[in-house]
Amino acid sequence: MRELGWIEGRNVAAIDYRWADGRADRIAEIAAEFVRLKVDIIVTGGNAVLAIRKLTSTIPVVFAVAVDPVGSGFVDTLSRPGGNVTGLSIQGPDLAGKRTELLRELLPGLQRLAVLANVAYPAARQELAEVQVAARALGVKDVPLEIRGEQDIAPAFEGLKARAEALYIASEALVDARQVVINALALGAQLPTIWGVSGGVQSGGLMSYGASLPALFRRAADYVDQILRGAKPADLPVEQPTKFELVINLKTAKALGLNVPPALLARADDVIE
Question: Which helix (H) or strand (E) covers residue 68, if one does?
Answer without folding.
Answer: none
